[in-house]
Amino acid sequence: MSSLKRPLHNHLDQIRAAQHQQRRQEAIAALAALDCLRGVSPTELSILYERGVFRAFPAGATVIGQRRGFRYLFFLLRGSLQLRLRDKDGHEVLMGILGRGDCFGEGPLFGKFFRHMSALTQTACYLLQIEIATLRDDLASLPLLTTALRQVYRRRMIEATLARMPVLGQLLPLERIAIASRLQPRHVPRGTLVVRQGEPADSLYLIESGQVVIEHNGQTIASLSEGDLFGEISLLTGDTHRANARTLTTTDLLVLPGTDFFRLLQQYPALEADLRTIVERRLKHLSAVRSDAARARDIEMAVNHGLLRAPHVLVRDPARCPPGCRLCEIGCATRHGHTRLHLNGTPIDRFDVLDHCRQCSVGAECVEVCPEDAIERVDTGALRITNRCTGCGECVSACPYDAVTSVPRASHSTGPLWELFRRVQQRVRPSIPLTPTTPTHRADKCDLCFGYTDLACVTACPIGNLRLAPVEEIVPL
After folding, report:
1. Which of the residues 68, 109, 284, 337 has an alpha carbon 20 to 30 A from that of 422?
2. pTM for the predicted model, two decimal places
């Protein structure tokens, strides 16, 4: 009886295998037809299919939002959805409407998180969902897919930059796309003088990524970041530039030539009124900083000590701390084996901003010089040193704020019995000391206690005087 059943089972297995292969080929053909995957080879599409999960979402569902979805890349196979984000003033803006053939969620693959973006379905949607962490490991072997996704990312970066600007957020997505076609991308190294005080204006500058400091007569008066613009004052007034604009980090700019700028104002008259409001606000700020020596000093200190590169900083009010108390440093050292922070860092107003890693949101020098790509940004926004670190020390010397240190690697072979064994071994088989084959040290820095549910330093403070605060709260600009 069993001998009769076996051919039947084999036949059913063959049918199932054929059906599975047919579904697989149909799915790969469907992926090949998507606009965002045009030109990607069947081999790479096959890997994409194997890594993905097909998901269905009803109309009105949140696919990604500020609290969910940033772990995945999505390909839209059927339906339509809205991409929305918040501008710098916190207002929600429609960035675009996506349909079949589009993808979204690619930002984390290339370092941009789009944490203020959300995707909401307009109709029932059928999506291919792929985990970012899994796909990131495959990118090196998927050159055509990487190129296709990077093109999407680049276009979306420009669209997001324009949408996040309050003066442009009022425009329709298609109108912003028309503006984007006039912009000239420009990659600028850190420390570059983009605009010089006293020179005539010829362009409007939009910051796509990076940070720029504004200097008036040698004094730092403001800091600008992603989504900000500069150069508009001189264009609108016809005067020469009133201040320098210098890149604090590696910066990507979108440059709008002056002729296109004035043509834009003619096409959208409401923009001029909004820009003049920005000009008025900035001139008042310049006047306030020039007349307030303490405020000017705080801004200068914040720039010099890298505070403006930090999304958040650890701060305390020294007046509230008991004399000689260092429980926060001890709590950090207890958890990590050595302290990653130090009290009496940068004095800003009544605060002490502790010396610790700034978790530089863009252009982190430690990341740029690491030969092993051992420093990665995690979901919390912190920069974490992974096990790929070889202890070469490049990041230690590269950090301009002395936030990275070299520490001994923890040894798993320690204790009195192990030491006795090593001595006996050396006597029996003497050897010439050689350079250790494994690293003896590794780089270490604050990563906001990655992997823990709390910050050791904050938990150790008995009076709740230490906290992680948004940098704009401590250094208002």
Report:
1. 337
2. 0.71
